[in-house]
Amino acid sequence: MRVKAAILLSVLAGPLLSGPLYADGESIVREQCAACHQLMEPAEAESAVSRLERQAPPLYYAGNKFRREWLVKWLQRPDRLRPAGYYPAVEIVPGEDGDVVETSTLPQHPSLSGDEAVEVSDYLMGLTARQDLVDADNYEPGTVALRMGMMDFRRFKGCDACHRDASDSGGVSGPRLHDAWQRLQPAFMSSFIADPTAWDEATVMPVQSMNESAVHRLVHYLRTIGDDS
Amino acid sequence: MSIRQLTTVVALAGGLMASAAAATDGESLYQAYCVQCHGSQGDGNGINAAHLSVQPRSHIDREEMSARSDEELYRVIAEGGAAINKSVLMPPWSGNLDETEINALVGYLRVLCCEE
């Protein structure tokens, strides 16, 4: 009996002893990410000011937004994508020459171990809400002359009011875009620029009502500058 | 009181209770959509201003704002700066905000500029 009991115990305990020492991606996301990120699509329409209640970007369409390889790297060494935080109004204070970002209170994104980053990335890539928007998009990577693309981004479309297309140029309230090509899936960029509210009703990215070729030209530009960053 | 503290107080006190009511709250909409460029004080000195080629409009400039009708303010918010031959750096918001929300913003601009 003792031998049988020992065998049974080893069979039961075996998987526990030989399994990974870290939690699976879903557990990590639910325990560490859910407090700030929306993981489920809202059941009801969100109001324009629901942004006030958010701490971080929604993740329920992360699998249609991010590139997995970028996620794995970034989660291990997260740097700030939005110089003024996710919701700038709570991070700014009036200064002598205008508003400044109160960097001392900007929240820091937690970093994960390599194994955890892989598990979390795999889980997030399975969150694929808005698949219909990806399927409907027909962006094909192309090129645009750097100077033309820059002029379009900055002067004609005014994207640099909020976004940076170089580490030292552009606004600071939106996410930086000089490395967007490495971070985001092309179809997401194209679809989101065309109609950001289709992805997120409470986005503060304006709907510019551009035609398809104008949208694609901007994505070409992000590709051009992203390949170099 | 900082905006962060104010937000916390509002969240605790009101439980962010009324999405419907908040949706037409011009000040909240201004915090969410406008302060980035036009500034927390409405003076045109938002965190993006130093990086722009055109200075954002000061909404506390009584003389300048009084020269604009409500219809003009509505139009520039809804259709963007280009609609009134101003900068494209002011984007159109009619795809993000409905008529009631834009009117609430126009109302708040009048508070900013002209309320004693």
Task: Show the helix and strand layout.
The complex is a heterodimer of chains A (229) and B (116).
Chain A: H1 2-18, H2 25-33, H3 68-76, E1 92-95, E2 98-101, H4 114-124, H5 131-136, H6 146-156, E3 164-166, E4 169-170, H7 180-183, H8 186-194, H9 196-199, H10 212-226
Antiparallel strand pairs in A: 1-2, 3-4
Helix pairs in contact in A: 2-4, 3-4, 6-10, 8-10
Chain B: H1 3-14, H2 19-23, H3 26-33, H4 35-38, H5 62-66, H6 70-79, H7 99-114
Helix pairs in contact in B: 3-7, 6-7
Description:
- The complex is a heterodimer of chains A (229) and B (116).
- By secondary structure, chain A is mainly alpha-helical.
- Chain A contains ten helices and four strands; from the N terminus they run H-H-H-E-E-H-H-H-E-E-H-H-H-H.
- In chain A, the strands form two sheets. Chain A has a two-stranded antiparallel ribbon with strand order 1-2. A two-stranded antiparallel ribbon of chain A has the order 3-4.
- In chain A, helix 6 crosses helix 10.
- Chain A starts with a helix and ends with a helix.
- With 116 residues, chain B is an all-alpha fold.
- In chain B, helix 6 packs across helix 7.
- The longest helix of chain B has 16 residues.
- The two termini of chain B are 20 Å apart.
Percentage of β-strand residues of chain A: 5-15%
> How would you describe the oligomerization state of the chains in this entry?
heterodimer
What is the number of strand segments of chain A?
A: 4
Contiguous uncertain segments of 5+ residues of chain A: none
Biggest beta-sheet profile of chain A: 2 strands, antiparallel
* Overall average pLDDT of chain A: 90
Task: Spell out the helices and strands of chain B N to C.
Answer: HHHHHHH
First-residue to last-residue Cα separation of chain B:
20 Å
Low-confidence segments of chain B: 6-23
How far the N terminus sits from the C terminus of chain A, by CA atoms, comes to 66 Å
Radius of gyration of chain B: 14 Å
Helix/strand-derived category of chain A reads mainly alpha
